[in-house]
């Protein structure tokens, strides 16, 4: 009888452990997951010496699909605005739109909640300046580094070092204008048509 009670107790204890393990949250992604991520950035400067004031805003939503547990592909959009005022006179008033595609690879887990990734994107964009009445078309490609921190199983915070490696080409839409190309290697932000300067965001796993 004692042996039967002991065996029953062991079985119940083992089952409770299995159930407890099943109830443990899991953080990360798997094949077939869809995520929505959005980044918002804002900057403002006020130089009293030159009486120059600038302000800028960018929003860059994206959607991705995991083709395996570590690799996602998707598309992105961006909208940005930039204004500059010098001694009370508007000198720049720009708005821009962009669209592109990207691939993201998660290569290292730092504990359960931190997931690091690298992302490569290609995009096109168009910027209009209301002051000069010029339109600029651009193309860009860039490599980013980033990390997600999972607050819950379905919500993560995003931080990125954008344009660690990037190339961009832009051309004003007027007769005789030549394209301007730029190559960047480092950890600074470079204006591009598919990501803006947003380095922080939030991610939702569907």
From TrEMBL:
This is Porin family protein. Residues 1-20 form the signal peptide. It comes from the Bacteria. Residues 9-188 form the Outer membrane protein beta-barrel domain. Keywords: Signal. It comes from Psychroserpens burtonensis. Pfam families: OMP_b-brl.
